[in-house]
Structure formats: structure tokens, C-alpha cells
Description:
The chain is an alpha+beta fold.
Amino acid sequence: MSFVTATDLSPARKPAPALVNIDRARQVMARHSLDAVVGSGYKNLYYLSGHMPDSVLGYFHDILGAAVLPAREDVTPALCVSDYDLAYLVTRPTWIPELRMFSAKARSSASYLLRMISEGVGIDTSLREPLRDAYLKTRELSTEDLVSALCGYFEANMGARGTWRVGFDDLRLGGQVAARLNGRIEVVDALDIFRDIRMVKTAPEIELLRTGARINDQGLIDASKAVGQGEPVMAMVDAYRSSVVRQGARFLGERGMMFGAGPDGGFVLDNDWAEARRLGAGDVVVYDAIGTYKLYHMDIARTGVIGEPSRRLVELHTIVRDALAAAEAMLRPGVQTMDARAVAEKLIAGHGLEPMLTTMVFHGIGLDVLEYGEQAHKTRGWTVEANMAMNFEVFYRDPEVGGVHLEDTVMVTPTGLEHLSKLPRELIVTPVKPS
């Protein structure tokens, strides 16, 4: 059976490089005895295929399509999406070779319009010829819904009597496919399997993280410029949000995550309460700025103060900065993250600070802001590998001074680290307005 390829659809435009780490994916699949993984959640669909139209970014439905990555190299990966996305695939082709389109033909206006265009109806535009070609080439494998598209893929590749063990990130979809195939596939929960695969980044992923870090650096700078005596806390929040959106990124949640100020800012999470305040001289300001660029997360934290910093604040900030640097200096392939954390803990304790007031967290970062290969990594750590992206957060909460928080995203290289943020780790001091 023949199938349409991305190159067939748009010969003038090359597909973007794959985000997925195929070698690692197949190693992880082998460890779990899987014949394939299916990503239908928007993160894993994007990760496997690079397919990111507004229908995905807008979360129109919880399941919009699926990408299949087989364990065997001689079996072709496939992208299963609706006819609604066909024009996007013409202008932004995916790296995945096989396309399986689906549509409820009797009820889909998109499919009906595509059929009319394929028949030459309407005024031709520069998009019409490649769209017409794409529509005709995808008809052979076209089905009425996503489950049918996936079933067709598995039936074509399992053989007449074969069975497969398949990891799904959505067990509802896996169950529907298994029922339709009369149990010829064994469904495995692959949510953590995908997270494990994604822990080691590819070159295109690293470039997205670098770009996000540059955007977040500027967002934090712009937020700090909006800070001042008598200014509302909301001003710096608005400045951050405007900055990242202007640069083509998104802020996380409603605000861009946490901004805190004053001695209560280290633990108050009621943003409405915090943002109703106005800043005063001596307030310590925590800038914890989180967003996404093309679905990849950016996460940085810095600490500032309005007016001349107290001796105690300078001391705390220096200790936190040194603890962060000491842990990061440990990071290289083969090191356990808990061993790196222990170095920071020892430094904190050596300066007489209260360990119970210190938050220290290692977390991977990528399509999740807190990315762990398995749940146990949160408390037990994990062994570092080359091309892992991670943050180490050090947050000391002093009941009199306020919060002192520093973190950056770093990329582990075969020999050390690349710091993605270029923002200095010094206190951000905002002068008090002259009276």
C-alpha cells in the first residue's frame, strides 16, 4: 500500500527537524517491551510529530489526533489527524512519513470544501494546487475517525496474525482501539514512558529552550523596570506578561507564575491579595517568571529589593547564590542529582541557616515545567545524562527579610553545563524615589 509523505505534500518546503529523540524512544520502548507508542495528548502529539496548528494550541478538544512511533526501524511512523488540518500540513509539513487523515465525511464542512477544491471549484490561489494534490493523495488511507485511522495503521503493520504491545498516553483512546481490534493489541499506560523519553533533549528542542530563556530574560528585565516605591505589584506582572507575548511566547497560567514582595512574599500564593498591594522601600521582591515558547517551558528566578539592601539580605542572597552554583558545578553525566543537592544543603547548613526554611528542588524542564522521567525522581533524584535540561531552585524564606530565590535552566553537556539564561545572578536593586 502506498502512502502520502510530507515531501509529497509540499516539495518547496522542507519538514521541520524532528523534536523526538528517536534513538532514546526506541531504547525506552525496548525496556518496556513495547512495539509502539501513541501520543494523542497535545504535548506528546507535538513531540512525536512537530504538528502544532491552532487546533492543538487552542485545546479545541482533548484528543485531536495521534502520532505513532513504532519500535522497529523498518515500520513507518504515522500521523493521524483530521482533514481540518490538511492545509496546515501543506504549509508546514511534518517529518513523519505517513499521513492518515480522518473525517466524518457526511458532516464535515472542511472535507466537503476540500473535495470541491479538488474538483476545481472556486478561484485558484497559490495554495489550491498543493492542497488539491494533498487531498487526492490522502484519500486512499482516509477514514471516518481517529480510532479507525489508528486501527488501519495497526492492521497494516501487525500482519494477519500478529499482536502488538502498545503504549498510549491516553488509556481511553487505547481502550477504544483495542476493542475495535478485538484485543489484538495490549494497551500499556505510557504517560510516564513519554516523560522518560523526553528527559534527553534533541538539538531542535535545545534551540527552543535557548530561545525561551532569552525571551524570559527580557521578560524579567522588563518586569523589574516596572518595580518601584509606591507602584502596584500588578505593574510588574503586567510588564512581564506584555514582554513575553510581544516576543512570541506565552506566560504560564494567568500571570506568568509567582511574583512576591515583602516578608510575606515567600509563602503567600494568593495572587489577588498580593497584586492589590503597593510596593514600599525595603521590600524584597521575588521574580519567579515562567512561560512557554512553542510549548517548551522557560523558568527563571531572581531576587530584588527596593532601596539599599540590608546587610542580612546581602548575606542571604550570597549564600543562596553560592549554594546554587555549588550544586550546578556537580552536574555532569553520571552524577546523581541528590548528590548535587547534598552539596548545596551542606553549604546552607555551614552558614547557620535553618534547613527547614530552604526549598531545594531539581526538576527537568521541557514540554512540562516540572519534568520527571518517573514519579520517584521528585524525591529520590535521578542520574544525569548528556543533553538533559534542568533547573535547580534554591529558595530561602526568611520571616523577617522575605524570600530569596534563584534558579536557571541549564543544559548538561558531555563535559559540563551550558547556562541558557545570560542574566546575572546579582540582586536587582531598584532605587527609592527621592522625596
